[in-house]
Amino acid sequence: MTYDALHHRSLTHTMSDEPQPNQPAPGWAARSSRSINAAPDGEDKRPKRQRRTGWRRLVPTWRLTLGTLLVAAVLLVGGFFLGYSLVKIPAANALATKQSNVYLYADGSVLARDGKVNRENVDLSGISEEAQHAVLAAEDRDFYTESAIDPQAMIRAAWNTATGKGKQSGSTITQQYVKNYYLAQEQTVTRKLKEFFISIKLDREKSKAEILEGYLNTSFFGRGAYGIQAAAQAYYGIDATDLTAAQGAYLASLLNAPSEYDVVAHPENKGAAEARWNYVLNGMVDKGWLPASERAGQTFPMPKETTTSTGMSGQRGYIVGIVNEYLTGHGLVGEEELDRGGYRITTTLEKDKQDAFVEAVDDKLMSRLDRKNRKVDTYVRAGGASVDPRTGKVVAMYNGIDYVKQYTPNATRRDFQVGSTFKPFVLASAVENGSLTQGGRAITPNTLYDGTNKRPVQGWDGGHYAPENEDQHSYGQITVREATDKSVNAVYAQMAVDVGSDKVKETAVDLGLPADTPDLVESPSIALGVAQASVLDMAEAYATLANHGRHGTYTLIEKVVKDGDHEVELPERKETQAISRQAADTTTSVLRSVVEKGTATAAQAAGRPAAGKTGTAEEDTAAWFAGYTPELATVVAVMGQDPETAAHMPLYGATGLARINGGGAPAEIWGQYTRQALEGEPVGTFDLRLQRGAAESEAPAGDPSATGSPTGDAPATPDAPETGGDRTPGTTQGATPPGTGDTGIPGDSSAGTGTDPGDDDGAGGGDTGTGGGVTPPDGGGTDPGDGTGDEDDDGGVTWPFPDASSTGP
């Protein structure tokens, strides 16, 4: 448009007579479509957004909502992957791996449990299916089909709780297992997050069966029981594999409130416990794990009032300590591993024999004590051990009245002299080595020796040694058998020199005594029992004699299993011919005489053929009886110890008697125990193969072993009355004061302080083991029973001792 046209148009509007519209005030633009859509100078103007007012200001826009959701999703996914990558499956926590060690009798019954945490892990196969299903019904019914994290389960659990349909955990079993096994129990956000991520990872790495097994082994059931195996024992005294549906449902109920639902501890809560129990059983029916017909017949299974004690009272503490020392000492289990627990240890101990041993000690010793009125009775201790000679298995032990009152195990301690129970080792060594007397005669059960009191031994270059006999009695010419019946110290000290004390020691070690036994010295005093072997040591040695000279170290362990599935390899027991059969059997024939008419007649109460020897320690601080039947070798000792100072104390006056001797309480305990332990078993006989010449007793003239020494205190008096051997066990006699026993010190002209001052007496001697004095026939072999062969010499003499009909109580 040209300037003239524009000017003309302007003049036309100005000069018009028509009314003009009001002009806007200065500063305001005219409202027109043009002004709205375009600004002056051609600038494009868009319409302004209307402002939100009122309540609409509080509602986010859809754009904001969508953006927020997208950001949250990105953060959530990123956080998940970050957490998944950062959180690792940790090592198990200390509590989860702690277990108790379970000690069993040979028949599988529980002997004791030891450990700070009462838990015994078992495989899933060791838990009955009924119990497994009961736990699933109680805690996580969709366990096998759900993932590790189940939001629906959390919602469902909350709804069930709110509507009174029974309380159910919102966590899956996987989550609960993670909490129990890997994490602590605190309720924190951090722990919850870790539980979340570990559960997911665990569900990918482990099978459902492995997770369920772990859960059942780590859950707490009350009564100090961690894991379902410990719970089954604590509440019902059975293994988890034997749990019924009803029992399993009750244990599953305990997971919800262990203390509250223990109906024995809290009978007032029985109604709530039964309601929970019914909820579990109904769940099992709903899932098809329990037939409805079977469910209808279920009755509430009341748990036991008293369960197997997990404490260390009675004999349990002693046995646990001894077994643990055996395991670690033989390198079978390390101390740290044993402390962590998880071992199921089956011992060789037989419960009926163990109970019989305790009963015998109570009847024959403990019941006779009066600790209030006789101070000496407070010193009395007892120890015992019983070994099967054929297998070397320790079948019973007695260690003390109660582990929580007397901690020292009396069956394994090595600080009391064994006394004259050592003398059979001297005789066995003499026969084994074909030893001769000073006059060159073979030593046999019927070889004559000089039994004069304080007779100096001949052929000993270590100095003057002249031991006393009990009660200062002199016997004169006496056979080895009679000397054993009466425990004549003068004879056995001389025999030890004749054999050689080094050889005697060697034989004792071969039979089973440890080489480092305290005071196992090479001197004439070795024959009198100055050695301090344990009751268990002596039982092993006597078991070798009972087994015809074949020795295998004793064993306390039958089986060891770790964590329910790993069996610890045990060393194979090896047996060797420690001494010849002739040496062992000849010794047995002599020890039979001790029981039949010597110092141990009380042992006849066993009612079986028996062989044994009594013994007493210095100053009557201990009295012993060691004996055996063909089936069982058992040693019993009564010891004196001050309960305050632990010092060895004499037992003069104990149980109201002048003194305790081996033919008294020890032999009586042995007799009662052996009768009960072997009750119902066939009566065996000793099948003995004796050395050649066992019945020959003529002593050549001039033999210094068989004649009195000019330096002796008393002449040989064969016909002298046997005043030193006529005490009867169980009656009161005048006490022999300390210092008048039979252990001398080489080089000292005075007698010793007494290894056997109170029990080695008898009412006679004689030959009871060679068929009335008949010399056994020659077997015709290369080693005709002369004591130098071994058990495999078929040419040896077989000369069975009289059978059971010749021995009676």
UniProtKB/TrEMBL annotation:
| The keyword NAD is assigned to this record | no
Return the SUPFAM superfamilies for the record: beta-lactamase/transpeptidase-like, Lysozyme-like
The UniProt regions of compositional bias labelled Low complexity, in chain numbering, are 710-756
**Bias (Gly residues):** 763-787
Span-the-membrane segments of this chain are 64-87
Please state every residue range assigned to the domain named Glycosyl transferase family.
112-284
Q: A Gene Ontology MF term for this entry?
A: peptidoglycan glycosyltransferase activity
State the residue spans of region: Disordered. Answer: 1-52, 693-809
Superkingdom field: Bacteria
Name the GO cellular-component terms: outer membrane-bounded periplasmic space
Keywords for the protein's UniProt record, in alphabetical order: Carboxypeptidase, Cell shape, Cell wall biogenesis/degradation, Glycosyltransferase, Hydrolase, Membrane, Multifunctional enzyme, Peptidoglycan synthesis, Protease, Transferase, Transmembrane, Transmembrane helix
* InterPro entries per the UniProt record, alphabetical: Beta-lactam/transpept-like (IPR012338), Glyco_trans_51 (IPR001264), Glycosyltr_51/Transpeptidase (IPR050396), Lysozyme-like_dom_sf (IPR023346), PBP_transglycosylase (IPR036950), PCN-bd_Tpept (IPR001460)
Catalyses: [GlcNAc-(1->4)-Mur2Ac(oyl-L-Ala-gamma-D-Glu-L-Lys-D-Ala-D-Ala)](n)-di-trans,octa-cis-undecaprenyl diphosphate + beta-D-GlcNAc-(1->4)-Mur2Ac(oyl-L-Ala-gamma-D-Glu-L-Lys-D-Ala-D-Ala)-di-trans,octa-cis-undecaprenyl diphosphate = [GlcNAc-(1->4)-Mur2Ac(oyl-L-Ala-gamma-D-Glu-L-Lys-D-Ala-D-Ala)](n+1)-di-trans,octa-cis-undecaprenyl diphosphate + di-trans,octa-cis-undecaprenyl diphosphate + H(+); Preferential cleavage: (Ac)2-L-Lys-D-Ala-|-D-Ala. Also transpeptidation of peptidyl-alanyl moieties that are N-acyl substituents of D-alanine
Residue ranges of every copy of the Penicillin-binding protein transpeptidase domain listed in the record: 387-644
Q: Which Pfam families match?
A: Transgly, Transpeptidase
Q: What are the BP-aspect GO terms? A: cell wall organization; peptidoglycan biosynthetic process; proteolysis; regulation of cell shape
The record's similarity note reads:
In the N-terminal section; belongs to the glycosyltransferase 51 family.
Q: What is this protein called?
A: Penicillin-binding protein
